[in-house]
Amino acid sequence: MSADEAVAPQRELVNSRTSEAGAGWACQRPGTFNELLPERVRPLSWWRPTVLWRSRNDVVARLFGDPSDEIRRRCVTALGERGTPAAFTMHRSAPEFSFALLGDTGEGDRSQYAVVPPLLRAAAGTDFMVIASDVIYPTGEAADYTAKFFRPYKDYPAPIYAIPGNHDWYDGLRGFLRVFCDLDLDCEPPPWRGPLGLVARLFWRMPGKVDEAEIADARARYRGTAAQRGVQPGPYWAIDTPSLRVVGIDTGITGGIDRDQAAWLREVSAGPKPKMLITGKPLRVDDDRRPGAIEGEGATVDEIVQDPRHNYVAAVGGDIHNYQRYPVRLVDGRTIQYIVSGGGGAFMHATHVIPKTRVVEEDAFRCYPLRGDSLSRYSQLYGRWTRLPKLFELTPEEATAAVEYRLGISPGRGYDGVEPSRRARFVASVLGVPWGQRRRHRFLRLPVRALPQRFRSELADWDRPPFFKSFLRVEVTESELRIRCFAATGCGDHEESPPIEDEVVIPLQQKRN
């Protein structure tokens, strides 16, 4: 069954841009995902000190240096000694194929399982799935793969490949390598140099052990068919087809790549064949450019992507838990679609804090959830936390009007003639909706954008609809690449016909060098 057949009944009528019902604000019936949940589900909460402590490697890497590059080199060496070809490339002979793509999945709670029914529906007939970043929260441990990877996707009938995210690196990538590459390697970090190296070594959380029997049992119980089995060559890889080369890179904890991986990336990027990049960290996000540093070079991943000799047409990254798309037109006339796809199951990063875009024209920018829906959801959370619901809580209509007022944009779902109240304008200011170009104003903000990312949206998780999760279906023919963003609201209304929130069709042409 194709995705068109799966979503045909509501495709033209229902999504968050057309109605509140399309956004999932009013569910006619509960989602069936509740029936998929394990008997005991403990929601992942960043309020718990133990979760923050187990995730401390992120802080250590940013303060003392990211050891991911050196650990990765050791892992790649071990894979080579095992006989893995250095090209790290999987080949497919069919020029037409399709795959599902979703990022930041592995919380193991309701928000992850809410994605499963619409994913299985919209991804029907795809040849494989790719998880882009953070397969397992909070620390990528092998012990969590049963509940957060094997069990949720037991009914997806094709292979699943993955690109590690920063959370997968918190255990030295040990669990990820064992599950996706069949490699158990305890790669300890190299000694940090300098007088503070001992401090870094002291606080670095070492990887846990791999329970081989548990992983074997989980694989056999949940994803044990031959069609589901897929071993990828390494933490970074390429899938080469006659029409398109899909290239996945491993950006470690802080978002860069090592020099050996950069040499490999340049090699697989060479030539006129159209290419699509999948990365653990997006190159364009929140109206900002994050080009991805290359170890010891001063060059960036984005420079490789934009090189006309490489013919990249799209770059998709996870890490930020929402959907964003920036069609960036280059000076040579080409357009590259920069996409954020991190809504696969983890807590939602706010979109209402995204300013009026400068990376591209605002009319060309797309995000999900819409800024107004994001503000409305956060206002409800802050109303609950502060026990001041009458002050903070905004309806989607009120929140949308406040976003339009502050940013000076049409925020996606129009309401005729709605003027924001003073209360709505106040809440929008406090919760971090920026001013548009017409005015600049600094005001008290609660921790939505004012604090670092770790302490913004992480503290604003919830486990009831609408979840505002999303995933992509990517279809490739000899002449075009088609990318569609599907919503996962958690409502039973949308499980059989998941709303299509965005769609882009990219012509595929072999460029001449």
TrEMBL record:
The keyword Methyltransferase does not apply. This is Metallophosphoesterase family protein. Its EC number is 3.1.-.-. It holds the Pfam family Metallophos. Residues 98-189 form the Calcineurin-like phosphoesterase domain. One of its GO terms (molecular function) is hydrolase activity. The lineage of its organism: Bacteria, Bacillati, Actinomycetota, Actinomycetes, Streptosporangiales. It comes from Actinomadura yumaensis. Keywords: Hydrolase. PANTHER family: CALCINEURIN-LIKE METALLO-PHOSPHOESTERASE SUPERFAMILY PROTEIN. It comes from the Bacteria. It is an enzyme of class 3 (hydrolase). Coiled coil: none annotated. InterPro entries: Calcineurin-like_PHP, Metallo-depent_PP-like.
